[in-house]
TrEMBL record:
<feature type="domain" description="START-like">
    <location>
        <begin position="1"/>
        <end position="126"/>
    </location>
</feature>
<dbReference type="InterPro" id="IPR045736">
    <property type="entry name" value="START_2"/>
</dbReference>
<protein>
    <submittedName>
        <fullName>START-like domain-containing protein</fullName>
    </submittedName>
</protein>
<dbReference type="InterPro" id="IPR023393">
    <property type="entry name" value="START-like_dom_sf"/>
</dbReference>
<dbReference type="Pfam" id="PF19569">
    <property type="entry name" value="START_2"/>
</dbReference>
Length: 127
């Protein structure tokens, strides 16, 4: 098995960091766009898609309106996926930066999956 590597994607968003943060950090917000069902128990989030068994992720860290970081329980302890909310200096535009890990050969597919998910998020945000 080859080593998974970190990659990042950036998406300009037309909404406030506070609203965006709610969609990235709460089970109700994540259920709006990321998975069909999201539950949280003692810092472990269960994400369910369709009739599949839930995928579980541990909540690692966050800073309100800035970032939230999770770690899939079935991956290496050093790997995570993160949603970071940044503002551009000149235009003050909100940017969502996603960091994730994938095999080098799977980064393109994983990026396309994130792009699909983010389109759903934008639809929910009305952005």
């Amino acid at each position: 098995m080859s080593k998974r590597q970190l990659f990042t994607l950036e998406f300009p968003v037309r909404c406030s960091p506070t609203i965006l943060y709610g969609f990235l950090s709460s089970p109700a917000g994540l259920q709006e766009w990321f998975a069909d069902k999201v539950d949280e128990w003692e810092g472990v989030y269960s994400f369910t898609w369709g009739n599949a068994a839930p995928d579980k992720a541990e909540f690692l860290d966050s800073e309100e309106d800035k970032f939230v970081r999770y770690r899939w329980l079935h991956y290496d302890k050093n790997e995570y996926f993160e949603f970071r909310i940044e503002k551009t200096e000149i235009s003050n535009q909100t940017i969502l930066v996603i960091s994730d890990f994938a095999e080098k050969s799977e980064i393109k597919d994983q990026s396309q999956l994130w792009e699909y998910q983010i389109k759903e998020l934008f639809h929910r945000l009305g952005s």
